[in-house]
Design goal:
The chain is of the alpha/beta class. The strands form two sheets. It has a five-stranded parallel β-sheet. The mean pLDDT is about 95.
Length: about 260
């Protein structure tokens, strides 16, 4: 495969590092070989230990990218979906991987899971955002036919599209309106944070709100009030929208924040 020189090779194991002898040998082999290819792995952070970190520390930048499915940090939700629940261990490991600075780290949150209200979802959002991974994907539950989640639609009050993509519309804990708002926050998260085009301004702007989620919620309200296009991926238009937001919300610090935007 390497001889074909693709841009990326994805290992499709759902938990690549479940067997340490297997994962470590492949990692060491690829690090020593160091081809100009990116290798994608889905890993479980609680299985990463000091020996793994010693190996990964030697990884050339751009060689590996890790996808880490967090889905929620709410204990009751994690129990309901049969996920391991040691958030302290998970967060500590991810932060160590981020600090290495040589591996692209992708984390996710799934909206619409059982027992997660908007307040719980906000907490999960903030927990995951504050890991400062390279990419934070906010996804939505897909109620696939034949799954345990589909069998519990009545117990959980789930309403979904019923056909592809089977995406959730509401449940006992999140209304249709709340999920619709979260969809819009997902758009802003991608435009302003995951794009990595506004890192400096967000570094100083987000801490001025009570939490990352509240920042994106306030930005959403501002954009909707002023009828701005939430879908545009034109960075100049996005920068203009941020500038107007700063003018209205942070007048006293406008000059400094404008300089941060200029830097970006």
């Amino acid at each position: 495969l390497i001889k074909q020189n693709p841009k990326i090779i994805k290992f499709v194991d759902r938990t690549f590092n479940a067997k340490k002898e297997h994962s470590r040998e492949i990692w060491k082999f690829l690090i020593e070989l160091n081809p100009k290819i990116t290798f994608h792995f889905e890993i479980h952070p609680e299985l990463i230990d000091d020996e793994d970190l010693r190996i990964l520390k030697n990884c050339p930048e751009g060689l590996f990218q890790f996808e880490i499915g967090i889905q929620s940090t709410n204990p009751e939700t994690l129990k309901a979906i049969h996920r391991a629940n040691n958030w302290q261990k998970t967060s500590d490991t991810i932060k160590q991987l981020v600090l290495l600075g040589n591996i692209h780290i992708h984390v996710d949150l799934i909206a619409g899971l059982p027992f997660e209200s908007q307040k719980d979802l906000e907490r999960s959002f903030n927990d995951i955002f504050n890991l400062h991974a390279d990419n934070f994907q906010l996804g939505f539950l897909k109620v696939l036919p034949g799954t345990e989640m589909a069998e519990n639609i009545n117990n959980f009050g789930i309403i979904s599209t019923g056909t592809n993509p089977y995406i959730i519309l509401q449940n006992n804990w999140l209304s249709f309106e709340e999920l619709n708002k979260i969809h819009k926050i997902e758009i802003l998260l991608d435009l302003f944070s995951n794009s990595n085009k506004f890192n400096m301004i967000l570094k100083y702007l987000i801490p001025k709100s009570d939490s990352p989620f509240i920042f994106f919620d306030e930005l959403l309200k501002f954009l909707q009030t002023n009828n701005y296009d939430l879908q545009t991926k034109n960075w100049k238009k996005n920068a203009f929208e941020l500038l107007q937001f700063i003018k209205e919300k942070f007048t006293d610090e406008f000059d400094f924040l404008f300089d941060c935007l200029r830097w970006d």
